[in-house]
Predict the 3D structure of the following.
Amino acid sequence: MTQPMQRGQVGRSAQRLEGRAKVTGRAEYVHNLHLPGMLHGKIFRSTVAHGRIRRIDVRAAQAIAGVERVVTGEDLRAVIPNPYYGPAFHDQPILALEKVRYAGEPVAVVLAADPHVAEEAAQLITAEYDEMPAVFDEVEAASSAAIVHEVLKPAGIFPDLKHLEGRKNTNVALDFHLRRGDVEAGFAAADRIFEHSFRTQQVMHTPLEPMVSVADAGDSTITIHTASQSPSFVRIEIARLLGWPENRVRVKVPFVGGGFGAKLYIKLEALVAALSLLVRRPVKVSLTMEEQFFTITKHAATLHIKSGVAKDGRIVARRCDVWWNGGAYADVGPRVTQKSGFTAAGPYDIENVHIESYAVYTNLPPAGALRGFGIPQLVWAYESHTDLIARALGLDPLEFRRKNILREGRPQATGTIMRDAAIEAVLDRLAQRMKWHEPFDRGSGTLRRGRGIGIGFKASIAPTTSVAIVNIAADGSCVLYSSTVDMGQGSNTAMAQIAAEVLDLPAEAIRVVHPDTDVTPYDMATLGSRSTYHMGNAVKQAAEDARDKLAALAAELGLPPGSNLPWPELFRRKYGMQAGNIVGVGSFIPSYASPDHDTGLTANATPFWMIGGAGAEVEVDTETGAVRVTKLVNVADAGTPINPAIVETQLSGGAIMQLGFTMTEEMQFREGQLTNASLADYKIPGFHDLPAAMESAAVEAQEHGGPFGAKGVGESGTFGVSPAIANAIDDAIGVRLSALPLTAEAVWRALGEKRGEA
Amino acid sequence: MAEGARTIRFTLNGRQVAAEIGTHETLVEILQQRFDLFGARESCGQGLCGCCTVIVNGAAVSGCLYLAAFADGAAVETIEHLGDGRALDPLQEAFIEAGAFQCGFCTPGMILMARQLLDEQPEPSDDDIRHYLSGNLCRCAAYPEIIAAVKLAARKRKGAASG
């Protein structure tokens, strides 16, 4: 870890500001909110994967004592005439209209003061559908006759989606292409060609505070309390749906009980807003854990990857074809497709690259952002592929990577020059922590041991804006206003440390105000590991602005430069009593150049690069196929950490989450019907899944554009985990798994195939 | 709902209380709705995650499955009862010092289970902690820090007992 800086607020493992509230159970979540006169909404969902709605019968539900109202999609048009929303496409109806596109889609809502009454009544609703052909596989859907959306409706926010406007008879919501050099010439010149296919499964974020939103409509305003990662987006999108100016929509977010990308954009906010406007009472919708599986998920993906390798072991050409299973609504899937498309060829220096990345609609629950924005799926493919090549060539997997990695100053596939990307340092530290060059106990008999590594990188989302306000009160105390949501990642503490460093105050003395769009300024969203860099820069600027204004006030009062008169005294001299404020403002947007539509090339693909690598040691029982991960090492480039302890927790937390996506988690469908929507059947990691040895570390690094040299780290811990484990399994028993999760059954079957039993 | 309504009397965090409840209502629901105690919270709704942990007659229960009616006559304790006013329980202190939470949603349940563990076993090993807390899930996966916090709390309690 990097040494603390001189002033000591940044680079210090400060305890979290909200620690006391969280350990006493008194932390504020929307989960806890009850407003006078509030109604609870319970959702009735589609039972078919694709079908035209013939009839919805709500009479029995409406007849239940205590039911205030039963609402269908058509009813919502009274308050929102065109009730379609979404960050990339305006394709998602608040409640199904005309047809349903996945089993589990919201169709109607029962409102009652007692949530048990609402739940009971919701079970009495019936719907009839004319079932339509459905499509579930992403590759099949790209050319299927079953069409999920009759017409594509891009939101118009993103210039690179405009060409899709009005497109018909397709499920492809975005096709991203990248062309660098001449891939076919590269393959022709190569000594060896390697080609593999990989698959990742659909999984779910599973925040332990299930999604929850409350709306309270007034005469000309509406307040939405929501467990959201993107309060500013919610305000803008609700204002658009209502045709109101932003200033009539207020969005408040207290602490959030886990997000991981699930609680972005619009989830329940449009629904509660419309319901509250309809019935003129506050309305709360709290999902159950089961319902979260029908709300937003992580893309399943199919990935083909082909490489040409020269005699000297250098990769000279690579082609990647990726199909992203977006489910029934685009959510932010097209952005995942494009942003991850940039880096699909991996952190390698390859002259000739050809990438095709497709966002595809299917009749499954929608997929969006989940801790890595598509990157863990890609790393799974390219790092499994890299290991297979190294093994086939008889090269050490570490040395093969070292020979090919992208080094500082070299152009990445988009043409963007790599800067402040400590890929080599991460690889070196990984090798050191794994004791890669030391003898390794490979086990014996039916217990075989192996080890593997994986390394990945990610371009940050761009261009996005953050605005912050620092307010110095007349007694010298400081309040920080930011719309960054602390969902557990420790942003309040980190932002306070940044402001404190500038203002020479203890971080603990700064109060950070929860996001409230009537009070806290615009922020694009808390996603994609962007807050430390973007909001961190805005907070730093705001604190510097406040500091400069305090200096100007001192000068105005005739004090000599550098005078250290206490701030309260400055205010007293200026206003004659304890009065007034100093308000510092910071607004940050990094530079960025959008990729060329045809070639995908750009000189400035990202404000900063995230680098993450993992190493795993495994023990495989060849009789049962059971895999035990005995050691998991995670190394990342986090720039210079603002709070080293929190950075480490982010890294290990991300790695353990990805361990779940690697070993156990999988949404299982039968003809579009999800069969395991409960924590009983969908297993997230618990204490017993923790590897016996776990190490997480940030390499010594600096991000020159970041606040005090820092950059984001929330996703980096996830990148290398899945391929590191699959590579370790191959190392242990000589079988290769190409699909996640790596269950005992999958290992056992692969062993059987290897023995010729298949 | 009026049907099956009844009055229960119990001790809540050391105080005698009474509540009018429906027989279908769970302990977590009445703690939140009648007593404004939000530290025990429903997450998975199946007794699998531990977020709803409540101590009833000295033993941890899943408050999302435990019917409020069963609490009649019992002693019920929640996270809000730990520590006394300003001072925190050693476990609460240790969770802060070890950074043993991120979003904080599972934290009250973790702390209550860990306290029960330390009451039974004042010096648990890593394995003891993993086994005892295996019914509590943390999606932020602060598991390594939680193990460190429980061991730190064990040392704090030992120090307090001998000091």
Q: What stands out?
A: Residues 464-588 of chain A form a domain with the Aldehyde Oxidoreductase; domain 4 fold (CATH 3.30.365.10). Chain A touches chain B through 58 residues (CB under 8 Å). Chain A has a mean pLDDT of 96. Residues 531-556 of chain A form the longest helix (26 residues).
